[in-house]
Specification:
Number of strands: 6
Mean pLDDT: 91
Low-confidence stretches: none
Distance between the termini: 74 Å
Strand order of the largest sheet: 1-4-5-2
Oligomer: single chain
């Protein structure tokens, strides 16, 4: 198998698209291999590289089923639920803290007032 064709930034021919461009058209790569790459030169680092897929081989995006919607809702609820106090924080729990903000930074005045 030969090397992939490499195009400069903004000079890719028609018929190729990135994943985001395919998604904007309601398409997905559909298991096809990367057809070409796009390179954007940078001064002090290596070039930015984007993978291109053939539009004619792309497939339509699969529709969201009720089961997928339920799984997505359950995953988002799990991301908002604090593992320590088991409450819905109302926001996604930061991975750096691992708990909601009140559990991560308890107010010392609350422990004095409860005595």
């Amino acid at each position: 198998m030969g090397a992939l064709p490499v195009f400069r930034w903004r000079l890719a021919p028609d018929g190729y698209a990135t994943r985001r461009q395919l998604r904007a058209r309601g398409l997905r790569p559909g298991g096809q291999e990367v057809a070409a790459t796009l390179e954007r030169p940078r001064r002090r680092r290596g070039p930015l590289v984007a993978h291109l897929y053939r539009v004619d081989l792309a497939m339509p995006v699969r529709p969201m089923t009720p089961g997928r919607w339920a799984a997505l809702a359950a995953a988002n609820t799990a991301r908002r639920t604090c593992p320590q106090c088991r409450r819905d924080a109302g926001y996604v729990i930061p991975a750096s803290l691992g708990t909601c903000t009140p559990c991560a930074f308890p107010d010392p005045c609350d422990s004095v007032r409860s005595v």
